[in-house]
């Protein structure tokens, strides 16, 4: 009897709750959506404030951040490759900085991506606005893009 009730209630709930595939089918994907993994993490958090020096001192005193002239650097190891060290840069900027331009926001987020070259090609196809060209440093490659929040 319990099996019969379970079997019948399965049909009942199937009609009430849509399958996950039916839910996924209702989500519209852009025609040119690519299946490459794009963002894999955060590389930096940058924000404007009245006095970056005081902010760094406050975070050092109250939250124990080891700060330097740029802010603080958080370090960790990759999950898939524990021998590989990664970092996240936390940096306060003066509220008068033009470093975030042409964005009018008081913050900027640096994302880590799987393959910057492939991502740039894809983003250009999708009409994303690029602020500059790729710049290469000993600690990575960077390009600034604008999202739709500006």
H/E element order: HHEHEEEHEEEE
Number of strands: 8
Let me know the average pLDDT. 81
Which band does the percent of strand residues land in?
A: 25-35%
Q: Do you know the CATH topology?
A: 2,3-Dihydroxybiphenyl 1,2-Dioxygenase, domain 1
Radius of gyration: 23 Å
Structural class: alpha+beta
Largest sheet strand order = 2-3-1-4
Main pleated sheet: 4 strands, mixed
State the distance separating the first and last CA atoms. Answer: 61 Å
User: What is the total number of structural domains?
Assistant: 1
Brief overview:
This protein is an alpha+beta fold. 29% of the residues lie in helices and 29% in strands.
Question: Could you explain how this protein is built, in words?
Answer:
The protein is of the alpha+beta class. It has a single domain (33-146), classed as 2,3-Dihydroxybiphenyl 1,2-Dioxygenase, domain 1 (Roll). It is 29% helix and 29% strand. The protein contains 4 helices and 8 strands; from the N terminus they run ααβαβββαββββ. The strands form 3 sheets. The protein has a 4-stranded mixed β-sheet. Strand 6 (135-137) and strand 7 (140-142) form a beta hairpin. It is flat. The model is unreliable at 1-29 (pLDDT under 50).
